[in-house]
Amino acid sequence: MLLLQLFINGLASGAIYALTAVGFALIYNGTRIFHIAHGAVFTFGGYALYLFALPLGLPWIVALPAAVIATAAFGALMDTLVYRPLRKRGTGPAGMFIASIGALTFAQAMYSLVFGTDTLNLRKGGLPTFDVGEVTVTAVHVIAALVALIVFPVLQLFLTRTRWGRAIRALADNPRLAVVRGIDAERLYIVIFALGSALAGLAVVIIAFDLGVRPDMGFSVMFVALVAVIVGGVGYLPGAAAGGFLLGITQSLSLWQLSGRWQDVVVFGALLAFLVFRPQGIFGHMLVTRRV
Amino acid sequence: MDYTLHLIVLVLIYASLVVSLDLLIGHTGILSFAHAAFYGIGAYATASLTVYGGWDWFSAMVAAVVITAAIAALVGIPTLRLGGDYFILAMFGFQLIVITLILNLEPITNGPFGIRNVPRPSIGSFQVQSGFGMALFVAAVTGIVFWVHWRFARSPMKAMLHAIRDDETVAMALGIDVVRTKIVVFAIGAGFAALSGSLMAFYFRYVTANSFVLSTIILLWAMLFVGGSCSIAGAIAGPAILVLFPELFRFVGGEGLDIPNIQEALYGLLLILVMIFRPQGLAGRRAG
Predict the structure, then answer these.
(1) Which of A95, A106, A124, B218 could lock A91 by a disulfide, CB 3.0 to 4.6 Å apart?
(2) Residue A54 belongs to a domain with what CATH number?
């Protein structure tokens, strides 16, 4: 029964990783930017929720979607302020990555300066829980699962069936050809960043509601999400989602035998194993290997 | 005066680290996100061998360099075959694993408490004791590191590494064994990082895991790119600017300010601004 409980917990944290990972993968595939500052965008959503819910006193039903929208806007702003000038200069992937590290460091330090380094709790009292047999399921578990179940199919439909979705995939596939075909790349980059960041926003409002907000909360989630992208197979969005769930569950099940301080080692041990034995990821055969 | 000397020693230790990071990133294009881990392995090996093993300082320093280079080669063999982004992530993972191991392998590392009372180096019967003597010692070792780097920058090997950095396919077509060369360079770079780690252990006489965490890497990357990669002047300018700049806060009344976070914010902002306005760094020649 302990194992089943750990599995349920892992499924919930897996949903968080999966949302963040798919957001990162969407941005990475669409813009080729190794957007490590995605972690800072994630944390921004947590503080936005805090501001909307506590000092402004908005009801949850308003504060939650507002925080997701704010996260999307922040991601788009980061593209405009940081990456767009670099694109104009013709900066390569390494330069983009360095700027992204800068943005991550800067934003994280600013959160600490403005809000302090302590955890800010968003809710008082416990969560509503449901006992199913000997397993306890919290409202957060249910919401995380529901959000993942709804968002991923909708995203897939958006990318395959709508004009904008197709334009995004065209841009990811071959930027030069897409521009020749009349796609406004700069405008689309903003859409991609907003969309990817909104996914991180969905993840963060769930986890912030549950565990509170800290300046470095995005950091560890971000890196597990990166591993999820690789484990699932770079370039294939459903793979990133599957990788997120897989890592969440693995991390949680490892608590059965190992203490919590080894969790990083479990995740990155899995990463190193994948990189050595199957660098294309679980679903890697579904696409042609691409030079990064 | 003592404090000025301390700042100079700090700049020198960081400069020696930035030189080895430049060999990897600037010259060979190996985006090593684990340089702080190798720096840490070197410092811990030195401290552990001298304090627990009773080794003399020189053997411990040599052993630290050899051990670290060997670990780097072992890690590099599977990971250096990977594409750029995968490699960054693998190095990041390695970095986290090393920190976790340092914190948990108590018999070798004394866990979260770190290792104290690392002995000062001695030459013959002369024991380096004073701050000034230590500064000279650090300056001498850093000088040797810079000299090796300068020799390298004038050798044909540089052209080979630049070929690998600029286009691996072309390098392969020219008959360069890209993966093997990268593994060798990676091990050498890690060995030099370990040497800086030894310096750090001898100077502070105390090692703790906190000195080798991610913010250290970000500081090192900021130093490298602010100073400018592929440039010996840049390898001194970057550390000098980033070590001395926060000192200005002491003069504007640092009371009640959250200095570490202000520093981090500045490092981050500097990285972005340098990439946008001067990607080759202050003294460098090559855009990032």
Answers:
(1) A95
(2) 1.10.3470
Buried b (16+ CB within 10 A) or exposed e, A144-156: bbebbeebbeebe
Residues in chain B within 8 Å Cβ distance of A34: 85, 88
Query: Which structural domain range is residue A140 located in?
Result: 2-286
CB contact under 8 A, B270 and A102: yes
B105 DSSP assignment: -
Q: Chain A to chain B, count of Cβ pairs less than 8 Å apart?
A: 135
Going residue by residue through chain A, which has 292 residues, state the pLDDT in tens, using 9 for 90 and above. 788 899 999 999 999 999 999 999 999 989 989 999 999 999 999 999 999 998 998 998 999 999 999 999 999 999 999 999 999 988 888 889 889 999 999 999 999 999 999 999 988 777 778 888 788 888 888 999 999 999 999 999 999 999 999 999 988 888 888 889 888 999 999 999 999 999 999 999 999 988 899 999 998 899 889 889 888 887 788 889 999 999 999 999 988 888 777 877 888 888 878 877 877 777 765 544 443 3
Domain ranges of chain B: 2-213
Option in B29, B90, B262 nearest A272 (CB): B90
Number of domains in chain A: 1
Give the minimum alpha-carbon distance from B130 to chain A in angstroms, rounded to a whole number.
37
Phi, psi of B122, rounded to the nearest 5 degrees:
-135, 145
Q: Classify residue A114: in a domain, yes or no.
A: yes
Closest-CA distance of chain A to residue B197, Å: 23
Euclidean distance between CA atoms B101 and B108, whole angstroms: 10
Which residues make beta-bridge pairs with A120?
A: A213
For residue A291, being part of any structural domain is answered with: no
Residue A110 domain flag: yes
